[in-house]
Amino acid sequence: MISFKQLTYALAAAETLHFKKAADKCHVSQSALSTALSQLEEQLGVQIFERDNKKVLVTPIGQEVLARAAEIVAQVHSLQNLSSSLKEPLSFPLSVGVIPTIAPYLLPKMFPTLNKRFPNAELRIVEEQSHVLVEKVRKGELDTAILALPYECEGLLTMEFWQEDFFWVTLKGDKYSQQKEITSDEMMHSNLMLLKEGHCLKDHILDACKLSEEETEHGFGATSLNTLIQMVLGKLGTTLIPEMALDQLISQNKELSAVHLKEPGPHRRIAFIIRPNFTRLSSVEALKDVCKDALAGNGA
């Protein structure tokens, strides 16, 4: 069997046209190099080099053999470089699922930081509800996903990177709008509107406020926080939003007031989920650090 070592020795001999110099270049003894080249010629059934005591020449058929050998060695080096590059975080495309109550507020902060630290990173973003993303990660249809905990992720690993509380949103001038904090009991008289069934944010709010679904059922079917904000502006009621959404949803609406929910927290925890044997853990860890720093305002 022809070896990579034999091809490397042959190319060194062709470059130097001197067995001693070729041996030094390959960090082996001259006898070891000479033996390996003789075995190569025997295995191929052709003479690659003309030898005498003064010089080494490459035969015409040897030129053809060495040209092929150079191609093979280059391909092996390319394969080694590819393997090394894939060990670097985010050096290979990564598919990432994100739930709708995180994606619009995390991604605009995350991407500038990501592009600074990993300019060649390639992410494929899929926005779906939690139960869909969990199943896609389990099946291998997604590499990872960003969810809000607590959520049932049996068989998957969670990598938590952020915690946050909820804020009650109402029109300025309404009762309790001037307070810094509000309790769930105080909110009960404000026609609290939440997302429709299926969004984990609704479940997290009900848990944090110790409320039943019936107590917040007003016949509304909003599927986004932006829609709920528009309903608040339309004087239909009040709502609760996560802290990461404050910049987008509240700062642009001077008519609104955001009051911290005074209930035991954190009200939700943000985490990546992965399969236990996922091979590119370093990429997810790198992305986790990017997201954490971006949310904390340390994106540089």
TrEMBL record:
List the keywords (alphabetical): DNA-binding, Transcription, Transcription regulation
Outline the extent of the HTH lysR-type domain. Answer: 2-59
Q: Which InterPro entries match?
A: LysR_HTH_N, LysR_subst-bd, WH-like_DNA-bd_sf, WH_DNA-bd_sf
| Top-level taxonomic group | Bacteria
- Please list every transmembrane segment annotated in the UniProt record, as residue ranges: none
Please indicate if the UniProt record lists Thylakoid as a keyword.
no
Which Gene3D superfamilies has this protein been placed in?
Periplasmic binding protein-like II, Winged helix-like DNA-binding domain superfamily/Winged helix DNA-binding domain
- Family (UniProt): Belongs to the LysR transcriptional regulatory family.
This one is known as: LysR substrate-binding domain-containing protein
Lineage, top ranks: Bacteria, Pseudomonadati, Pseudomonadota, Gammaproteobacteria, Kangiellales
